[in-house]
Write a structure and sequence with these properties.
With about 400 residues, the protein is of the alpha+beta class. The protein has helices at about 5-10, 60, 150-160, 200-210, 225-230, 250-260, 295-310, 360-365; strands at about 20, 30-35, 35-40, 50, 55, 65-75, 90, 105, 110-115, 115-120, 130, 140-145, 145-150, 165-170, 170-175, 180-185, 195, 210-215, 240, 260-265, 270, 280, 285-290, 325, 340-345, 350, 370-375, 385-390. Helices cover about 20% and strands about 30% of the residues. The chain is elongated, with a radius of gyration of 31 Å.
């Protein structure tokens, strides 16, 4: 067996970042921006009114003037082209460019308008109510990459006049469940069969982080059946198998994969759950063999497959984000395998679930974290700081870059 960190290093060596492709802005949310976006135009591109009112020269106010002749009107998308002089004003609306010669807006609530003129009736008028050119962003501003694009990013890029940002191509992941005991959801299992759940959980997990998935037919515990399903993986960027065979320990899966040119990087990892993990290349395509127990497959997906998909998308290379929090209760000593324990972060404390059986999906479903109990760690008293991996949407917060 190898350590989790060594196994992760091997997994991350299986693939490289995929190529970039343009995408229409309206379809870009959730995609990974692969190239930074630069601005070649100020926003706003002109000094604009922030309020409805009248544009004047601030020097008139300083000189004590209280009355102005209204010589025109400016609205959003309709500039007033003439210059405005001393004692003159233009009616202006929010978002309209300030006319030449003006730098201050009197809000309409502070004036009385009568037959082509306005008189100042209220105050104070110390705020100019003007949005300077480039006050949102200026030429040279950039949205950095890589980053997972949010709705806010989409709105910003639209204002930057970016119609087709370059994003990383989505990895195509083929997922294969193996075993005579499995049937697909919606089918009628015999009394000695169970429903295949891992393929659907893994597919959802990987779709959530940016991959496209194909759930292939269940491979039965025969070399011919495995070969037939492996033949359907053409075009995949990553192949995931789940479960071994009736004789155990991935024997048939490994043999069938070897027949397709599998070059194994490692087999078995010192972790709980998830010891029987296999990885390598099958005809130059990365392949990861996950254990068959439902929780084991999902935990290994979080620890190994998600980081690999992140790398393929061009995100920073590394393991899952790990945070720390204190234990809510005492925790027993751990054995020789690093234990990824289902638990919940509640009010800043880690509550480790008592039942850690790797077949219990209900326990995983109720958990919002994986608490990491280190190899051969002694008993940990309440209050000890422990590492944990956030699950679900919380786990995506580490994929966003920084603006500059």
């Amino acid at each position: 067996m190898i350590s989790v960190s060594a196994a992760l290093a091997h997994v991350l060596e299986l693939a490289h970042p995929l190529e970039a492709e343009p995408i229409a802005l309206q379809h870009a949310v959730g995609r990974i921006l692969s190239q930074p976006v630069f601005v070649d135009r100020n926003q706003p591109p002109f000094a604009a009114s922030a309020m409805d009112g009248y544009a004047i020269c601030a020097a008139d106010l300083s000189a004590g003037r209280t009355q102005w002749d209204v010589i025109g009107e400016a609205a959003a998308g309709h500039r007033f082209d003439n210059a405005v002089g001393t004692g003159q004003a233009t009616r202006i609306f929010t978002g309209a460019p300030l006319p030449q010669g003006t730098d201050h807006v009197l809000i309409q609530e502070h004036v009385t308008a009568v037959e082509g003129s306005i008189t100042l009736t209220d105050g104070p008028n110390d705020k100019p109510h003007v949005r300077p050119a480039g006050s949102d962003f200026a030429v040279g501003y950039q949205l950095t990459a890589p980053r997972r694009l949010t709705p806010q990013d989409i709105a910003l890029m639209a204002s930057m006049n970016v119609a087709q940002p370059m994003v990383s191509r989505k990895p195509q992941v083929a997922i294969i469940a193996t075993g005579d005991e499995l049937v697909q959801p919606g089918e009628s299992p015999r009394n000695d069969q169970i429903i295949a759940s891992n393929t659907y959980g893994l597919a959802a997990m990987l779709q959530q982080v940016g991959a496209e998935t194909r759930i292939l037919p269940i491979a039965r515990d025969r070399l011919q059946s495995l070969a037939e399903v492996f033949a359907l993986t053409t075009g995949a960027d990553l192949i995931i198998t789940i479960g071994g065979a009736s004789v155990g320990d991935h024997d048939l899966v490994a043999q069938a994969a070897a027949n397709f040119g599998m070059q194994q990087s490692f087999y078995k990892v010192a972790m709980r759950p998830g010891k029987p993990l296999m990885a390598g290349h099958m005809s130059k395509t990365p392949m990861i063999g996950l254990p068959g127990n439902p929780v084991s497959a999902m935990v290994c997906g979080e620890v190994f497959v998600v980081p690999l998909v992140h790398k393929m998308l061009g995100l920073p290379i590394g393991g899952r984000q790990r945070l720390t929090a204190p234990l809510a209760d005492d925790l027993q000593a751990n054995g020789p395998r690093e234990h990824y324990m289902r638990g919940n972060l509640v009010a800043g404390e880690l509550h480790v679930e008592r039942r850690q059986d790797s077949a219990l999906l209900t326990v995983l479903n109720a958990a919002n974290v994986l608490v990491v109990h280190k190899t051969s760690a002694p008993a940990q008293p309440k209050g000890t700081l422990m590492e944990y991996i956030p699950l679900g949407l919380q786990s995506m917060v580490d994929t966003k870059g920084e603006r500059e």
